[in-house]
Amino acid sequence: MLWSDPENKPPKELRDTQEMLRRLSVLMALAMVLAMLVIGVR
């Protein structure tokens, strides 16, 4: 890090994108678990 670098705060768009990706990954994980259960039941 250079002394001229701004504070370690990402811009709002980046934070929003990271939050959306986090939610998406949680949804994907839940969908995978659900799919495994459905496949296991059959």
TrEMBL record:
The record's annotation in Pfam families points to: MmpB
Q: Which residues cross the membrane?
A: 20-41
The family database entries (InterPro entries) matched by this protein are listed as: MmpB-like (IPR058070)
Which keywords does UniProt give here? Membrane, Transmembrane, Transmembrane helix
Q: Which NCBIfam families does this chain map to?
A: morpho_MmpB (NF047320)
Identification of the protein by name? Uncharacterized protein
